[in-house]
Amino acid sequence: MPEPVREGSGPASTTGVAAAPAPTDPAQISPPKAIVVDRGGTILDIQLAESEEMNWIIWGGNLILEGLDFAVEHIRIVIKLADWERDSEKEGNISDAGTALLAEAKIYEYLAKVAPDFDITPHYYGVFNDSGSIALVLEDGGERLRRNSLKTLDDSEKHELFEKAQQLHRLGILHGDLTERNILMDEDKNFRLIDFHVSQLDHKCSWNGANGCGELEQFAEDLGMKL
Asked: PANTHER family given for it (predicted)?
């Protein structure tokens, strides 16, 4: 795995994926602190999902870092893979699934740079485009919500989740698919949003607290919230 691993951001990508322009002055964004490791690797131990439609495989495993001057436990991660059977030396040999995965990585990279203190998504470790595959690496953010479970959340959980969606919009991102399958909840009942392959940057949200944004209006309705 490429080095260094960056705290609050992913490693420098070898894919040529550029972060989207920030909604604020980029000069005001502090660069993330780099943690340099001697060696890093992953051990994948469970296949979590497979999408025939997008030709992705999602694996769970551990991120292992060596050479640090402080103790760290193995970090539980999730890796979304595309194009694992392609010829990496052949130019332009990236599938639609690989292109979508690189587009999704742009959203994570953007959020890691402009909002590193917001826990809207799982921690982003980077996207890697080598060895004949494209891999998006995230912290394990918990389990996906069950289908049709949004309205069963209690009021505080609904408001927490809706606030995360609003934060995303304030940062200029339209998610595009705010459904249970794209929402994680960990053991401490913290929510994270995932799956940004159909998301849009530069969203100018006109939400006024009751209406004005189609995605937020629909999400509030799905949550059964009274605004």
From this structure: SERINE/THREONINE-PROTEIN KINASE YRZF-RELATED, SERINE_THREONINE-PROTEIN KINASE YRZF-RELATED
